[in-house]
Amino acid sequence: MVPEETERLKLSQKLLRLRGKYVGRPSRPELEGLGLEILGETHNPLSYIVLLPKKWTIRVDGNFTHIFDGKGNRRIGQYTAYLSKGRESQLEIL
User: What is the number of alpha carbons within 13 Å of residue 5 lying toward its C-beta?
Assistant: First the structure.
């Protein structure tokens, strides 16, 4: 059972940048390293369904999703493009 005070969301499996440097690799190790729990996967687009740590918050601004830790520091940014062929997301971990 998932606690009510936590947040679930979809995050891209494709990690574009890590601390400002282009990496272009799977995001799972870094997401788990930040304390996010991977609950499952979606296949269109390739995303993880994740559970945020307690007190982490989400702010959506148009196509951008910003995730903040319990101290208010921005830790993750995701840009989602809505294309004619479907959605594509790019993930950045700060």
Answer: 5
- Half-sphere exposure of 50 toward its Cβ, with a 13 Å CA cutoff? 26
Contact 34/70 with Cβ under 8 angstroms?
Answer: no
Using the predicted structure, report yes or no on whether residue 28 has a pLDDT greater than 50.
yes
Long-range contacts of 20-26 (CB under 8 A, 24+ apart): 20/94
Strand 86-93, strand 14-18: pairing? parallel
DSSP code, position 29: H
Could you count the other beta carbons within 10 Å of the beta carbon of residue 89?
Answer: 20
pTM of the model: 0.84
Closest CA to 92 of 39, 34, 38, 6: 34
At a CB cut-off of 8 Å and minimum separation 6, what does 8 contact? 2, 39, 49, 50, 51, 52
Give pLDDT tens digits for 51-66: 999 999 999 999 999 9
